[in-house]
Design goal:
alpha/beta; six-stranded mixed sheet; 10 strands; disordered N terminus; disordered C terminus
């Protein structure tokens, strides 16, 4: 396996009529969107807008009350999805196991499932760590890394399975502005190098406008608008304007590294 030169292509994601109610309160109110293979699609909205609940549905942790989620036209609830498509999640916290080294964390999926011999796993781990700018950190413990480095290690852990879809849960949460920029660059880097489909759930406007091919703005369980960064910035919906702020004009990051 060579994660940096894989010829895989990303998968499509289609969400139709998604609804979810908890305790009598409707949290998702008919969510519809489609993500194209190889696209970076950002779902952006304020706290309490339904982003976290939507993410749980996208990774199959919550069944919808109505509607469906399709991966390449197949229901995400299908038991065959896990064996047919390689899906990875980068958790908000990074979720590295504190008792394992960085290298052991990154290679955990391969070693636990005995998918490769130890020497091959070590080579793959070294390769993906270098690919995310963490060369030589294999023997470090997670608590020796900065917050931004832990997020990049989590991306490396996702990368070892050669994913076709990566879902990012608030990838810049609790990071300083410089570290947030680095994470945005990594998302762009992976999309360019392995043509993965990236679905990013975030409240970070700088990240969204810096990396997205398209953005969906969610508010109180509804999608207010979907479009390119420029289209979203020009949108006249008062709720969209309130979230973005009238004078919010971030400079887009370059998609070349």
């Amino acid at each position: 396996m060579n994660a940096s030169t894989s010829n895989q292509s990303g998968v499509s994601v289609q969400v139709s009529g998604l609804r979810k109610t908890f305790g009598g309160q409707e949290v998702l109110k008919g969510i519809d969107f489609e993500v194209q293979p190889g696209e970076i699609f950002v779902i952006m909205g304020p706290s309490g807008s339904g982003k976290s609940v939507l993410l749980k549905h996208l990774i199959g942790l919550e069944p919808p009350d109505a509607g469906e989620i399709l991966i390449n036209g197949e229901s995400i609830q299908s038991p065959e999805i896990a064996s047919k498509y390689r899906l990875a999640l980068v958790f908000q916290s990074g979720a590295l196991l504190s008792s394992l080294t960085v290298g052991e964390n990154v290679g955990l999926y391969l070693s636990e499932h005995r998918l490769k011999p130890p020497a091959e796993i070590a080579r793959i781990v070294a390769e993906v760590l270098e690919d995310v700018g963490l060369k030589g950190t294999e023997d470090k413990m997670p608590n020796e890394l900065s917050g931004g480095m832990r997020k990049r290690a989590a991306i490396a852990r996702a990368l070892v399975i050669e994913p076709q879809l990566i879902l990012y849960d608030e990838p810049t949460s609790e990071l300083d502005p410089l570290s947030s920029v680095v994470i945005g660059e990594e998302i762009l880097h992976l999309q360019k190098r392995i043509h993965v489909t990236s679905l990013v759930v975030s409240h970070d406007r700088d990240l969204a406008f810096g990396v997205a091919d398209r953005i969906a703005v969610i508010h109180e369980g509804r999608i207010l608008t979907i479009g390119t960064p420029d289209e979203v910035k020009r949108h006249n919906d008062p709720l969209v304007r309130k979230f973005l702020h009238a004078d919010f004009k971030p400079e887009p990051q370059s998609k070349s590294l």
